[in-house]
């Protein structure tokens, strides 16, 4: 179902949908009915993108002169939103409702009016018109928190709604999150909420509240200390007066702590409904994380301007390309949720390109050159004209036909544009337009012996396909002049170029040529190897696409070059998987220790317990209780004689005897149950497994970076910084419920970390293979 939205009108949508992706499945959220007020309606959305739509209302920002409000009731949500947006606003107390006074004499009045204003200028009003509509629904509902009798009902409703969500609306912070957080933290409800937080009644709401409090602690702590504490009473403290001397209340300043980058920039000369973009990968490898940014950025602008997006394969080099890469690129594009109009190929335009090349030869704007490649490169660097540059048109046409035929003479030649060999921009120094290549093309076989270069084909095909804006990473900046010059010489329509920064990751190679080396030399298992930065590789490692999209959207459309840490991406991923992934138990095989409980059950018994104590959707598991249990050797080494320990999901036990070998390693333990003991008094809370024949053999696999240097310098050979050991395997045993794991399922091994099942259970002799998922803090260490 699709909705055509006019962003300048009030948006009224019946049967709203929201995309909610948990693990690898879409689920429909069915919030409970509310006894009071009318809570927002939320359903499943047909589009997967989280982007601002075409023509989203741009707010004309003015300098906010002052925010005034009654001394005993500061608008905490407005102040917090402004703080998170990086907007410094002087404040003063008054007897009237909260009011913004602007430098031109205009005023806005009312808490939620002011909040909506900050939401728009601070980019906290959703990523598209649909999300803005959702936000409006929630803001109509939020005041119910101030109704004393309905406070807990509101907490119940929002707690249920947040069961599988990180933010209330979409995948990023919005003024709804700020409004609800402020309603809970405010002076009128703060003490009541603090009391409820200590109970287990609203676990999802508490998780969400604590997450925001930690993520934006610098800003929120200052706001609550100033306006919620007993000494504040709504009156600014000295710290606040210092703020009044700072930057004026406009939005030219980038957000400080808690603010988030976005793609909120404009395409040059873009018109609503007339924008046509292309995502144009070369089919010479799989889609990687850098390509993902380009794909999502193209989709963002296409949707924002109510335009079109096509996928085009720039298949101009048959030596590197294959149908395997085409198929997998389309698979990766689908994985990212990219919606496109059609798929095209540069090879569809080979006849047109050859005709254009011949026209340039006849016009004296191109020539055939047989200068050896190395010499040609040197001459271009030095600004030296080729000996062939002034050949006659007849001679050029003769050699061009030799190239088309793929003759021995033709193979010595290339076609170059006749631009300017003295131009300071070396890309304009007679670039190569065509090269001979006798290798068959993956789509059209051996029909052609000559192929256009990307630099020549792209400007023509962009114009031919009606592309209005070509999005290119800033590494192509010096070639933009070449792009425009070729379009001028060909006499085609000019296409606007919009640059964005390439996404670079630490300890990561994104060059397809270098990645291919790892594949061809057996250093990895393939393009979907978990050590690879390809979409398939990082998904196989355990990254949810939702986390990848959120990570890339947070980077925004900045043109500044940046080197990103993987930790941030994996931290986002953890926030999504932790609330929902099931819990299981494993014990490391090496030197595992048997603990005998003298008063343990003579006959094993089974209890059915949740796979996730805070998420019923994870299902249940069967836990067997036996007289003898296995624990990790590393845990056994920490136990002292007569120490009381806690056996997770069972209760306390007291260890009486410890047997060791000659090297001091613990070999056996014995003790007795002490189930009436308090888990609060024990230092060690240990995972364990029963001594049964139903346990599952596991192989836990951890990974390291492929190279040992954060960033390769220009000219540095990646072969010099190869990491000699990048895969680590540890044998373990797991609980019997792990026989039911499916490939791709994400789980947590308690006290060991998060894992993705890569090879599920088939038979007892073949171990289940689990890939360790980074959590953004440290490398996985299995013990």
TrEMBL record:
<keyword id="KW-0436">Ligase</keyword>
<protein>
    <submittedName>
        <fullName>Glutamate--tRNA ligase cytoplasmic</fullName>
    </submittedName>
</protein>
């Amino acid at each position: 179902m699709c909705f055509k939205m006019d962003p300048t009108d009030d948006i009224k949508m019946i049967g709203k949908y929201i995309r909610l992706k948990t693990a690898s499945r879409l689920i429909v959220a069915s919030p409970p009915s509310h006894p009071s007020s009318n809570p927002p309606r939320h359903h499943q959305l047909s589009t997967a993108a989280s982007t601002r739509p075409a023509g989203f209302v741009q707010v004309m920002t003015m300098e906010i002169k002052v925010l005034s409000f009654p001394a005993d009731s500061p608008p905490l949500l407005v102040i917090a939103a402004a703080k998170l947006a990086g907007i410094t606003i002087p404040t003063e107390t008054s007897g009237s409702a909260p009011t913004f006074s602007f430098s031109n004499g205009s005023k806005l009045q009312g808490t939620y009016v002011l909040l909506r204003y900050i939401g728009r200028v601070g980019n906290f009003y959703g990523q598209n018109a649909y999300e803005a509509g959702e936000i409006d629904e929630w803001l109509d509902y939020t005041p119910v928190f101030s109704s004393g009798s309905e406070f807990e009902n509101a907490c119940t409703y929002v707690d249920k709604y947040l069961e599988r969500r990180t933010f209330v609306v979409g995948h990023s912070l919005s003024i709804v999150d700020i409004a609800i957080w402020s309603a809970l933290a405010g002076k009128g409800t703060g003490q009541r909420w603090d009391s409820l937080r200590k109970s287990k009644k609203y676990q999802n709401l508490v998780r969400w509240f604590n997450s925001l409090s930690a993520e934006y602690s610098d800003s929120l702590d200052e706001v609550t200390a100033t306006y919620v504490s007993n000494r504040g009473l709504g009156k600014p403290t000295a710290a606040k007066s210092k703020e009044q001397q700072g930057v004026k209340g406009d939005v030219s300043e980038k957000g400080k702590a808690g603010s988030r980058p976005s793609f909120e920039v404009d395409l040059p000369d873009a018109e609503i409904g007339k924008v046509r973009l292309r995502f144009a990968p070369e089919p010479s490898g799989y889609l990687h994380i850098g390509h993902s940014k380009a794909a999502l950025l193209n989709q963002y602008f296409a949707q924002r301007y109510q335009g079109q997006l096509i996928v085009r394969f720039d298949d101009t080099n048959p030596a590197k390309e294959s149908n395997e890469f085409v198929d997998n690129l389309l698979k990766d594009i689908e994985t990212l949720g990219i919606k496109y109009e059609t798929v095209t190929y540069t090879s569809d335009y080979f006849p047109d390109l050859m005709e254009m090349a011949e026209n340039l030869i006849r016009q004296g704007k191109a020539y055939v050159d047989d200068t050896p490649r190395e010499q040609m490169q040197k001459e271009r660097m030095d600004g030296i004209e080729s000996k062939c540059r002034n050949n006659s048109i007849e001679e050029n046409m003769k050699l061009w036909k030799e190239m088309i035929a793929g003759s021995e003479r033709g193979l010595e030649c290339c076609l170059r544009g006749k631009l300017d060999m003295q131009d300071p921009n070396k890309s304009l120094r007679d670039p190569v337009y065509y090269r001979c290549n006798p290798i068959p093309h993956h789509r059209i076989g051996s029909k052609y012996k000559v192929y256009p270069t990307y630099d020549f084909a792209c400007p023509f095909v962009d114009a031919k396909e009606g592309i209005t804006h070509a999005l290119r990473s800033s590494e192509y900046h010096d070639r933009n002049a070449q792009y425009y010059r070729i379009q001028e010489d060909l006499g085609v329509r000019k296409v606007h170029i919009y640059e964005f920064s390439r996404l670079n990751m630490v300890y990561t190679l994104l060059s397809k040529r270098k990645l291919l080396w790892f594949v061809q030399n057996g250093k990895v298992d393939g393009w979907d190897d978990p050590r690879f930065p390809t979409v398939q590789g990082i998904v196989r490692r355990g990254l949810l696409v939702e986390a990848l999209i959120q990570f890339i959207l947070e980077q925004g459309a900045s043109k500044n070059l940046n080197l990103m840490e993987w930790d941030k991406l994996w931290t986002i991923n953890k926030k999504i998987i932790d609330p929902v992934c099931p819990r299981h138990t494993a014990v490391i095989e090496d030197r595992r220790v048997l603990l005998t409980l003298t008063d343990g059950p003579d006959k094993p018994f089974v209890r059915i317990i949740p796979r996730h104590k805070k998420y019923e959707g994870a299902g249940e598991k069967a836990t067997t209780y036996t007289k003898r249990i296995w624990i990790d050797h590393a845990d056994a080494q920490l136990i002292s004689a007569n120490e009381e320990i806690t056996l997770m999901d069972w209760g306390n036990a007291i260890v009486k005897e410890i047997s060791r070998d000659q090297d001091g390693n613990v070999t056996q333990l014995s003790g007795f149950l002490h189930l009436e003991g308090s888990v609060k008094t024990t230092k060690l809370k240990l995972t364990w497994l029963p001594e049964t024949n139903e346990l599952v053999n596991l192989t836990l696999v951890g990974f390291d970076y492929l190279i040992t240097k954060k960033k390769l310098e220009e000219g540095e050979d990646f072969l010099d910084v190869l990491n000699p050991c990048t895969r680590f395997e540890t044998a373990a045993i797991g609980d019997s419920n792990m026989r039911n794991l499916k490939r791709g399922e994400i789980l947590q091994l308690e006290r060991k970390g998060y894992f993705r099942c890569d090879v599920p259970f088939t038979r007892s002799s073949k171990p289940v293979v689990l890939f360790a998922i980074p959590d953004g803090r440290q490398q996985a260490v299995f013990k």
